[in-house]
Amino acid sequence: LQILKKKKKKKKIPYFLKRFLICYPVMIKASAGGGGKGMRIAWDDEETRDGFRFSSQEAASSFGDDRLLIEKFIDNPRHIEIQVLGDKHGNAVWLNERECSIQRRNQKVVEEAPSIFLDSKTRRAMGEQAVALAKAVKYSSAGTVEFLVDSKKNFYFLEMNTRLQVEHPVTECITGLDLVQEMIRVAKGYPLRHKQADIPINGWAVECRVYAEDPYKSFGLPSIGRLSQYQEPIHLPGVRVDSGIQPGSDISIYYDPMISKLITYGSDRTEALKRMEDALDNYIIRGVTHNIALLREVIINSRFIEGDINTKFLSDVYPDGFKGHKLTENERKQLLAIASSLFVAFQLRAQRFQEHETSRVPIIKPQMANWELSVKLHDEVHTVIASNSGPTFSVEVDGSKLNVTSTWNLASPLLSVNVDGIQRTIQCLSREAGGNMSIQFLGTVYQVHVLTKLAAELNKFMLEKVAEDTSSVLRSPMPGVVVAVSVKPGDMVAEGQEICVIEAMKMQNSMTAGKTGKVKSVHCKAGDTVGEGDLLVELE
Fold first, then answer.
1. Is residue 159 annotated as part of the catalytic site, yes or no?
2. What is the DSSP letter of 326?
3. Are 385 and 395 in contact (CB under 8 A)?
4. What domains can be seen in the chain, in order of their start residue?
5. pLDDT digits (tens, 9 = 90+) for 24-74
């Protein structure tokens, strides 16, 4: 309280209170909270004051209760939870664990069951303590006891969620139990049907939380819009999707940005992860920005595959922020070959007329054996030569010759393409007359510019739009509501100083100055609704 109230004189702490003291870092969290809302980590007094302010406001907004807890923060832990099930007759069992360490802003992103880290001894110890807690409070339903686990398999109680967790499907997959059915039975007063010895671990399950978020901004800032096209990959083996979303649904700044829970199950972890990779490639979401690129990169990352993870995984692996998939040399050539083949396929389709044999307009068939193309990717221009024979294109790029085969159903949102024996699932998200194409390849959306050789020569004479100087302006990185504005015209601000606070999805985000300067104008006030890219403040 002395810190939070900024008292200059500190009173002597009574001896009997000293044993309750904890040192930095600490976790400030909403006592009624969940889902990462109302949580802040503080490493010093200043961060504690800021954390207290933001956490209490988020807690009041999300839960109608601004009370907070302050507890010791354990650095670099794993987040592992135990699913429990109790009845009204004093019986309780634990249904194994879920690994939930892949998080951003204290919210889970990828979960799996079981954990690759736990051994049977630690699993049993955690499960027995979770059941002991459930019995001590006479808990009767499905619930989750959450723990932090350090590198030596020491585990620390975090909290108990007295409800069904978002990630419960992975537990259902490996145990064969329907948790919702069991909850209903317990609520009706029936005793549990299963003993602890009856609870198995069969196979492996992985869940990815598909969010309407931009993963390139702080690993996921909210995106809003209307789903113009939506198709779940439920046709694939071992895939389950839990979602209430459908085409035409609106994604709002006032609600949780989750689109769905994507779950895959396999006989082992390798199969479950491969099925997840395929499911993410086959997931069609148009109209809002989503985090599929980030999810796919996580599950193919070598550290994740080896099980070397903790709650700081994302910031450790991507210290400069998420940048999308980094193409290998072979993958780059594959993408260039696919883009070139798509371009030629579109051109050939445009040259065909329905029932042209009976048309009064004479059709002159183009005699082009080879297409000389200029393909731009990541500011590098490549000369590509493509030719086709039926469904197969022969593409020469950077000294390599690749064969690209597909049905070339250009009306389909998904396209299965074979490149020299390697099967890829791609999505052509957009194509413009000027040669710009957006292609989702290996989860990441790439901007590719394809032109014929002649068009590329003429394109050099076109004027380019000058990029905006963003050093003196602050724009909203996401849609949201302005909670507070801390400056006015004429104020001097320092680099990193808070300018305003924007709330989106009930999470508050502090917007800071990018440089030191004087405030020229303020374009927002508390209570305003702003969109992504809206101008907030200008500096001189």
1. yes
2. -
3. yes
4. 13-72 (3.30.1490.20), 76-202 (3.30.470.20), 203-309 (3.30.470.20), 329-351+368-460 (3.30.700.30), 473-539 (2.40.50.100)
5. 888 898 888 776 778 888 989 889 898 889 898 888 888 888 899 888 787
What is the residue type of 264?
Answer: T
State yes or no: pLDDT of 195 exceeds 80. Answer: yes
- Of 62, 41, 61, 37, which Cα lies nearest the Cα of 50? 41
Q: What is the DSSP string of 382-441?
A: EEEEEEEETTEEEEEETTEEEEEE----TTSS-EEEEETTEEEEEEEEEE-TTSEEEEEE
CB burial of 86-124 (b: ≥16 within 10 Å; e: otherwise) equals: bbbeebbbbbbbbbbbbbbbbbbbbbbbbbebbeeebbe
pLDDT given at position 245: 84
Estimate the share of the chain in helix, then strand, then coil, as percent rounded to the nearest 5.
Answer: 25, 35, 40
Q: Provide the whole-model pTM.
A: 0.83
Query: Do the Cβ atoms of 164 and 131 come closer than 8 Å?
Result: no
Q: What is the mean pLDDT of residues 349-367?
A: 61
Which three-class secondary structure state does DSSP give residue 301? coil
Tens of pLDDT, residues 388-432: 888 999 999 999 999 999 999 999 999 999 999 999 999 999 999
Separate counts of helices (H) and strands (E) for the chain: 11, 33
Q: Which of 46, 97, 159, 167 is catalytic?
A: 159
Q: State the Cα–Cα distance between residues 206 and 212, nearest whole angstrom.
A: 20
What distance in Å separates the CA atoms of residue 323 and residue 294, rounded to the nearest whole number?
9
In the structure encoding, which two tokens stand for residue 250, read together? 């609106």
Task: Please provide the average confidence, as pLDDT, over all residues in the chain.
Answer: 90
